[in-house]
Amino acid sequence: MLRVALLLVCLLAAGAPRAQTVLDPALLERVRVLAETAASATAPPNTRVSVEIGALDARLRLAPCRQVQPYLPPGMAVWGRSRIGLRCTDGTARWNVTLPVRVAVFGRAVVASGPLPAGVNLSQEQLAMADIDIAAEPGAVFTDPAQLVGRTLARPLAAAEAVRAPALKSRQWFAAGETVQVLAVGAGFAVAAEAQAMSAGIEGQEVRVRFESGRVVSGRAVAERRVELAL
Fold it and tell me: Among residues 15, 116, 139, 149, which one has the fewest Cβ atoms lying within 10 Å of its Cβ?
């Protein structure tokens, strides 16, 4: 369906006058700046963004256009393999296509110092720092090896591979029946109280707790015997 839609907005006739098969260098620079600016807005400090621009489908023959507007398609990722939209706003025929781009975000992060099997409990000696492309794969990276010491790998890692959040087993912060600190956070305030966990508190997951009054609420397990409740 996408291909059909593209064909409808393009002139496919080989004899179309001045049909655009190669994008203007000035337009490509605007695409690069747009992608770089969007990626930099969400990149961590002390990182470097690099944009590699791909090419349109060689079979396309776009109608001549006096004004082409690059834009970020709604919901499109700005890191890794992505696409930038191009639409003709002033031409003999209006068209709208997407141009592939690859956005790399280079920075220092924790990597495996050697091959590591699944199930290993990480130690300082098994971790190192290296410059990597943070955007190459999904998942948050870590910038301090101390954050990972004692954590368990959920899958094996190759030497020099970044240790990303999805590669780690979720921690159990507390067991059912334990007393936990519940922090209720609202606009400009935070209130703490004790409650009893009704189930195990797994890192980042919802858990139900019961206050002394008998009231039961759901919050998120965020740390050792700690539950956060957003109001």
Answer: 15
Q: Return the SS3 of 13.
A: coil
Residues 57 and 100: their CA atoms lie apart, in Å, by 10
Give Cα 136 distance to the centre of its chain: 10
The residues, any chain, with a CB within 8 Å of residue 231's CB and separated by 6 or more, are 184, 185, 186
pLDDT digits (tens, 9 = 90+) for 63-113: 999 999 999 999 888 999 999 999 999 988 899 999 999 999 999 999 999
H-helix or E-strand spanning residue 209: strand 206-210
Q: d(Cα 92, Cα 108) in Å, to the nearest integer? A: 49
**Taking a C-beta distance cutoff of 8 angstroms, is the pair 11, 61 a contact?**
yes
Going by C-beta distance under 8 Å and a sequence separation of 6 or more, which residues neighbour residue 38?
Answer: 72, 78
pLDDT tens digit string along 104-138? Answer: 999 999 999 999 999 999 999 999 999 999 999 99
